[in-house]
Design goal:
Structural class: alpha/beta
Helix content: 40-55%
Strand content: 5-15%
Strand order of the largest sheet: 3-2-1-4-5-7-6
Order of helices and strands: HHHHEEHEHEHEHHEHE
Largest sheet: 7 strands, mixed
Shape: globular
Length: about 300
């Protein structure tokens, strides 16, 4: 499939959220805006590409085209995308209830979390990503007639720092803030991730939260599902962490881990309820090398 989009990874994630919301009898994370942010041609092109590329994940699988697509999406692509979406939304709801006034979305892509009716307008929202990515997203929001007037878009290079850009558009360092980075940490070097934690710790007041997903260090090394997904999207996963390593890195930068879910916990919390309503190619489970984390700034 020819890539004419600012981010193929973001487009695939958007497709997955749209597909899951439309097809699942009990969505883990329902994204009511996802399909509206894609053209019909894009949706069909990504679906066709997934069917044609099924052999990358499942050599020899002989189901119907729809079964092939279901298996690719539900077994490989959707578990990380929808579980991190549900995890982040639950944490954000709680943070808003406890007094968070600002939402910062790092590497926002086509994520529609800020536009959910229960969130939109309740916090000042800042979306950070590359200039071309944000320009494309604004265009999609406008074409879908989705109100974006309450969201501030901040073009920046996250690897080179974003503090000044954020503050220049009205971010308040003294107000309790919720920051999320979904699907981002997989593509950061360990030094880059440590620097991100440091930057956030200097940018937010105590009790602010940072929610993210990350690749767990496993015995499988290069053969992990997360590694294969990154490769399949034309990306390179740059780092993996053990829980103890992540905990030390967080504490070094003033964060305490308040919530951490890996495969067993993700399956129980998000996929057991979903799987009770489906079977076969609709069944979802988390990857062994995927984890969700909510860290709270303690200083």
């Amino acid at each position: 499939m020819e890539n004419k989009n600012p981010s193929m990874t973001a487009l695939i994630s958007l497709f997955v959220r749209a597909y899951h919301t439309k097809r699942s009898p009990a969505p883990v994370y329902a994204d009511e805006y996802a399909e509206r942010l894609m053209t019909k041609e894009e949706y069909e092109t990504v679906a066709r590409s997934m069917k044609n590329g099924a052999g990358f994940f499942f050599p020899g699988f002989g189901g119907t085209p729809d079964e092939v697509l279901d298996k690719v999406v539900n077994t490989r692509l959707a578990p990380a995308v929808v579980s991190r979406g549900a995890f982040c939304l639950a944490a954000l709801r709680n943070a808003v209830m406890l007094g968070a006034k600002q939402l910062v979305v790092l590497g926002s892509g086509y994520d529609a979390l800020p536009y959910k009716s229960e969130i939109y307008g309740r916090v000042r929202t800042f979306e950070l990503d590359r200039r071309e990515m944000l320009a494309d997203k604004r265009s999609r929001l406008d074409k879908a007639d989705i109100d974006r007037t309450q969201v501030t878009f901040v073009p920046c290079d996250l690897s080179k720092g974003f503090e000044k850009d954020l503050i220049s558009v009205g971010y308040n360092k003294s107000e309790r803030t919720f920051v999320c980075a979904l699907g981002l940490c997989h593509y950061l070097e360990k030094k880059e991730f440590s620097l991100l934690l440091k930057r956030l710790s200097l940018l937010m007041p105590a009790h602010s939260e940072f929610v993210f997903d990350y690749p767990l260090e496993t015995a499988d090394g290069e053969n992990t599902v997360t590694q294969k997904l990154a490769f399949g999207a034309g990306e390179k996963m740059k780092a993996r962490y053990s829980y103890s390593e992540l905990e030390k890195l967080a504490e070094k930068n003033g964060f305490l881990i308040y919530e951490h879910l890996s495969k067993a916990e993700i399956d129980e919390k998000f996929f057991a309820p979903h799987n009770a309503f489906t079977s076969g190619t609709g069944v979802m489970t988390a990857a062994e090398d995927f984890a969700l984390c909510r860290a709270v700034l303690s200083r």
